[in-house]
Structures are given as C-alpha cells and as structure tokens.
Amino acid sequence: MKLIGIIISKCYPKETRPIFLCTTHDVSSFSFTYRNAVKDVSKFLTREIIPRLKVGQREVIGHEDYKFCAMRWSDGLAVAMLTDKDYPPRVAFQCLTKVHHDFKSKVPEQFYKAVTDDGAAASYKDVLREFLKEFKDPSKFDAVTSTQQKVDESKKIVQRRLDDVLDNMQNLDKLVEQSDDLSTNTQVMFKTAKKMKKGCCKVT
C-alpha cells in the first residue's frame, strides 16, 4: 500500500481553480523516470477534481491502479491524497481530517483567503511531510477501528471513476492538453498509457 502525496488547497464555493497552499509527495518507490510525472498527475487531479466536489462530502475517485481521496470544507479548504488502489479510504479520510484540523489551527484564514499563488503556505510543508510519514502504514490506524465503524464510514464515502467525474474520456484528453500542471513529457506518457490500455484484450 502506497501513500504518494497530500495536497492542501483553497477553493471557495464558485471558484473553479484551486490554489495549492502546501504539497508533499513521496515518490521514492517509483523509477526516477516517472517521479516527476507522478507529482504532475497528482496536482492535475487535484486541480480538476476539487472544484467538482460537494462541500462536506468524502470522495474517492479511482483511475487505473490509483485512488484520489479528497474532501472539501465550507471554510474554503480542501485536502486531497493520492494513493495506490490498496490503500484503505477509511484511513485516508482520517488523515485528511487530521491535516485539515491541524492546518486550521496553525494557519489563519485571513492569510490563506488572500493567497493567489501556489505554495504560499510552504512553511507548513515540514508538518505535512510528517503527516505523510505518519500515515504511510495504514494498518496501525485501521487495526484500532471497530468493524461497525468501518462499515458506517464506508457508507458515507462516495466512490466514482475518474471518467465519471470528468464526464468522459474525450473531456479528460482535452483537460490533459490544457493543463498547466502537466509537463509535456507527462502528457505524452499519459496518452501513451491510454493507447496501450485500449490495445489490450479484455477478458469477459
């Protein structure tokens, strides 16, 4: 199970472009060639999906072998996490909630409300990195969660595929081409992966 990255952003109602306040990633498990691409995709997904989320709703968006877990609050903050498909959403949302609470306690709203550029809360990065390390092993959190609580929490989590969130694959292709978060190399890799998947046989 992999916890790949956490992104804190601000996105007030009716805003369509989130501003990244603080980000951290651990891409050490990926080959050097793909590390920047993984970070790019994490930012791309956050930028595109956060404005589409309902305030207060827990969302898990699945794409290929990865999960994008995110939650948006009425105070304008949203926290997102990129994991592999095996990372339990229950634990992911424990982390997102904890990060949100801690960030709010240390960074005043009047500060982040006025922010217009990505990375304005970079001073919080060391704290965010510690959260990533703390939740790297989800088993130590999941083990103390009762069975009934797991069932109840799972019912409250909305799970969708990326294609459904972004309407259709053609729309996704267009967003990939227009994204400022994806480098040219990452865009090429994204399209190549899609073509390879289309060419694979499906077992029914």
Task: Summarize the structure in words.
Pfam families: Longin, Synaptobrevin. It is found in: Endomembrane system. This is SNARE protein. One of its GO terms (cellular component) is Golgi apparatus. This protein is an alpha+beta fold. The protein has one domain: Longin domain (Beta-Lactamase). It is 46% helix and 20% strand. It is built from nine helices and six strands. The protein has a six-stranded mixed sheet, with helices on both faces. The radius of gyration is 17 Å and the shape is globular.
Summed up:
With 204 residues, the protein is α+β, with helices and mostly antiparallel strands. The protein has 9 helices and 6 strands.
For the structure shown, list the relevant keywords.
single chain, alpha+beta, Beta-Lactamase, globular
Strand content: 15-25%
Number of helices: 9
Rounded mean pLDDT is: 80
Q: What is the CATH superfamily?
A: Longin domain
N to C succession of SSEs: EEHEEEHHHHHEHHH
Rg, nearest Å? 17 Å
Uncertain residue ranges:
195-204
Annotation, overall tally of beta strands = 6
Q: Would you tell me the structural class of the helices and strands? A: alpha+beta
Distance between the termini: 28 Å
3D shape: globular
- Strands across the major sheet, in which order? 2-1-5-4-3-6
Percent of residues in helices comes to 40-55%
Largest sheet: 6 strands, mixed
**Annotated CATH architecture:** 2-Layer Sandwich
From the 3D structure, determine the CATH topology.
Beta-Lactamase
